[in-house]
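Review form for a predicted model. The reviewer records the input and the model, then writes brief findings.
Reviewer: anonymous (R2)
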Amino acid sequence: MVSQYWFPPEIWTMVFQMISEGYHYDIMDVRLTCKTFEKLATPFLLLPRIICAPSSSSLATLTAVSRHPVLSRSVREIVCNCSRFQCIKTLPEYKEALRRAYRFSGFDEPRSEEEDLGLNTAFSDYSQYYNNQAAMESSGEVIACLCSALMRMPNIERITISPNFEYELDDELDEELDDERNNELDSYHYRKWFLDPNPAYNEAFLLMARVLSLTGANIRELEIESDDADRGHGVDGALFRGMSQLSLSHCCDAFRGFRNITVTANETDINGWRTGNLAKILSGATDLERLCIHCSDGMFHISTRYILGTTVWSRLTSLDFSSTTFDQGDFLDVLRRHSGTLKDIYLNCVHLANGSWKVLLEGMKSFLSLQHVSIEDPFEEDGHEAIYLHGHALRNYLLGDGPNPLSIEYLLNLQEESVL
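Model under review:
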C-alpha cells in the first residue's frame, strides 16, 4: 500500500486548505488520523477570535483554547458577550419584562395549558440561568478564568464588548426536562416565553477593565459595539457617576496600551458623563492613534470637554464622531492641540453649537493638514435640516486650494451655474 507520506507536505497543506473552506469539522477529524496530519492540519483550525460570556460552557471553551499550545497563539481578539440575565424574582415581574421586550410586536397572555407550561418553564429556566451567572460572578470564577486565559494567549491585540452573539444556553442548566415533560412542552411555546438576556455594557466594561489592569496585557484595540437588535445603546453616564477610585484606576491602567478605541454610547445619566471620568480614562491611552465616539440612540449632547478633556495625544491621527453635539470653540481647541498629527476626520450627523460650520471649516483649514475628510449631514444648533455639503467641494477646500463650500462666494457661483 502506498504510504500517505509519499505526497510532499505542500500537497497535503493544499488539500487541508480546501477541506477547511468547506465543513469545518472535517479538519478536526483529519487531525485525528496521525501525527503528521495533526501537525499539517492544525493551522487551519486556528481561531482569530474567541467569544466569552459568564457561563460555564463559554469559560470552559476559553480555558481549553488558552491551554492549547497552538490555538492559544492564534487568537487575536477576545469578544466579551455583554448580555446578562437580570434578577427577576416573581412570575408577574417576568411577564412585565416580556411586555417591555415585546413592546412593538405585542405581548399575549397564555391562552392554553400548554402555553402556561411554556411560560412557567421559561421563567424557571431564566431564574436558574441568572442564579448560575450570579454565582460565577460573585465567586470570582469569571474574572479568574479571564485573567488566566488572557495571560496564556500572548498575541491578543483586540478586545470587543458586544451583545451581538447568542448566549450559550444548552449546557447551563443543572438538569434537563424529563421525557414526559419534554414531550408535553412544545418548543415553540417555550421559546415564545423565554426572555433573552439584556445588554449590560457598563458591567462588561468594568469587568474587562479590571481583567486588563490585573494582567497588564498589552492590548492595542478596544471596540464597544452597538446592539444590532436595538435592545441597548452602549455605555451610559451611570458607569462614570458611580465609579469608585479603584475602578477608575483599573480603567486608566487598562487603557494604557490602547491605540484604537471605538465607543458606542448613549447620553443617559448626563451628570455621570459630566464627571469627566471618561476624559481621565482616555488620557491613560498615551499612544492613542484613532478615536471613534458613536451614539446609537438619538443625539449625544455631551460637550467634548467632558469626553476629551485637555489631553494631548502625541500620536492621534484620526477622529470619528457620529450623532454627537459639538461646541465650536471646544472642538476647535481639540483640533488645535492635535494640529501636528491629525490626518483623518470623519463626522456624521454632528450638531454644532455656539458657532457655524463655515467658521469651523475655516479653522480646520488653518490648523490641519488632512489626508482624508468626510462630513455627512451636519447640523447647526438652531437648524432643523442638515446643511448641504458637497463632498467633492469639501475635499477640494480642506485637502486642496478650493473655496470654502459654505462661503457666500461659492454658494453664489453654484447658484449661477445651476441657472445656466
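Findings: The longest helix spans residues 113-138.
Further findings: DSSP finds 20 helices and 14 strands in the chain.
Recommendation: see findings above.
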